[in-house]
Amino acid sequence: MPQRSDEDLMVGVQEGDYEAFTTLFERYNRKILRFSVRFLNDCNTASDIVQEAFIRVWDKADQYKRGLPFKSWLFRIAMNLCLEVKRQDSLLTSIDDMKEEGFEPKVDMKQPVDAMIHDESIEVFMQALERLPSNQKTALLLAKDEGYSYLQISEIMQTTVSSVESLIYRARKTLIQELRGKIEGIV
Hints:
Layout: H1 6-14, H2 18-40, H3 43-59, H4 70-87, H5 95-100, H6 113-131, H7 134-144, H8 150-157, H9 161-179
Helix pairs in contact: 1-2, 2-3, 2-4, 3-4, 4-8, 7-9, 8-9
């Protein structure tokens, strides 16, 4: 039996078909989770974003417009939820804030030096990514992590393709400048 299209499934969801909803959830929940984790750098909050995004898909199914890509509509919902969380600073505590409060991450002294350097590089990169403006970070994550084209990103972010190109260019430029000399291989 051929796989149902996203649009066909959403028509089913609009008619109250829970099986169609479940199929969409199974098809996209990991992608939304991955995007949200990278955007927020917080697994628990990202899981909440996935749940809330799909609750909104069910509750607002009537707002989905046939003919438009479901994937773009879903990622726009997830992006807006992530931005909402970012605006509520009380929900997230940055690494710098935790250090000021006396929290120091534990380092396993048995861990090989190379692995520690790798972990530190990832932390430095994630901190730099966290400092990017939300629109630059969103465009970069959708392009690099999710593999979306600039056209698809422009639909999700409701902007022009040239704006997406500019956002990604500025994000890369900022990351390179911030990471130069901090991570091996970035000159």
